[in-house]
Amino acid sequence: MVVDITGLKAAICGGFGGIGQAICKVLLEQGVLCLAVLDLKEDKDSLEAWRKSYPTQKIFFNYIDVAEKSVVEESMRAAKEKMGGLDIFMNSSGILNEINPELCIQVNLLGTIYTSLTAVNLMGKHKGGNGGIVINVTSVLGLEPSHPIAVYTASKHGGIGFTRSISHEFHYNKTGLAFIAVCPGLTNTKLVQNPQNAATFDYVEGEMAKILTAKTQEADICGENIVKAMRTGKTGSIWICDLGTLREIEMPVHWTLQF
Ligand SMILES: NC(=O)c1ccc[n+]([C@@H]2O[C@H](COP(=O)([O-])OP(=O)(O)OC[C@H]3O[C@@H](n4cnc5c(N)ncnc54)[C@H](O)[C@@H]3O)[C@@H](O)[C@H]2O)c1
Predict the structure, then answer these.
(1) Whose C-alpha lies nearest to ligand 1, atom 41?
(2) Which of 92, 105, 216 to mutate to test the pocket of ligand 1 (most atoms within 8 A of CB)?
(3) CA distances from 181 to 65, 147, 198 (A)
(4) Chain segment 94-131, per-residue pLDDT in tens
């Protein structure tokens, strides 16, 4: 299946971040009717530029803090109301903070959980919605360990486990809502440009610095590939977008229930 984005209504959380902005641009180019940009802070310059380039499309900002469940519910509900519907929801918010594990888990993992659960309630067919697609931007560090940033890595593994579970056909058949996880590799955004508090212990700071000398991709190509993955509408699919490429991966099965 290839989802036609033309005329759809989309909300992008973390939409003013590096990867979030790239996603917003591609969705606007591909003809979304309405775009709700949800983030901690309004970026007036980006909004103005997008409104100039896409004058017929409705583009607006809503405050969200993904670490606060009630704020998430209120912000996403208000965005749906303003657009008169919601077809696509993407969560591209995130932080890298190893010295405040609570905050890192709250934003990266609980944020993913809060936004996804709210999407089910707002978009699910079982609740009178039309179904649609949810994309959770996780990381290649949701798939592989990374010794200098253990907390961030745990938060991203959690995001993958949650998305794989909630994307199950059993949910999909009830809700009509496809859940997809995308895993970017190192991408040139603020998250990795001079990051603060980005090593679990002082003694791994050098190891973290080494990681940051690895090859990166630009946010624009990452955003393009994330939208490509989204357009498959394939619930439960997991995609790596790294160094300008996109590929779907199969997760290994280590264990199943025995009856
Ligand atoms: N840049 C990379 O190398 C890389 C690699 C893999 C995965 N990722 C993931 O991609 C996503 C986007 O990151 P990015 O690289 O664009 O970083 P970024 O720092 O440019 O953007 C992050 C966005 O999240 C928003 N945000 C932070 N805390 C929030 C909160 N509590 N509530 C709502 N929004 C909040 C920020 O305001 C910002 O707009 C993140 O989930 C990140 O973990 C990034």
Answers:
(1) 94
(2) 92
(3) 21, 23, 24
(4) 999 999 999 999 999 999 999 999 999 999 999 999 99
136, amino acid identity: N
Active-site residue, 152 included: yes
Atom of ligand 1 nearest to the CA of 106: 31
User: Which domains, and CATH codes, for the chain?
Assistant: 9-245 (3.40.50.720)
67 in Cβ contact with 61 (< 8 Å): no
Element containing residue 156 per DSSP (H, E): helix 150-166
Q: Of 41, 51, 53, which is closest to residue 17 (Cα–Cα)?
A: 41
Question: Reduced to 3 states, what is the DSSP secondary structure of residue 240?
Answer: strand
What DSSP character marks residue 14?
A: T
Asked whether 19 and 221 are in contact (CB, 8 A), the reply is no
Q: Which of 54, 63, 114, 152 is catalytic?
A: 152
pLDDT at 1: 79
Q: How far is the CA of 68 from the centre of ligand 1 (A)?
A: 16
Q: Which atom of ligand 1 is nearest to the CA of 188?
A: 1
What are the pLDDT digits (tens) for 189-198? 999 997 888 8
As for ligand 1, residues whose beta carbon falls within 6 Å of it are: 14, 16-20, 39-40, 64-67, 92-95, 107, 137, 139, 184, 186-187, 189-192
Separation of first and last alpha carbons in the chain: 35
Per DSSP, the chain holds a count of helices (H) and strands (E) of 9, 8
Q: Which residue positions in the chain have pLDDT lower than 70?
A: none
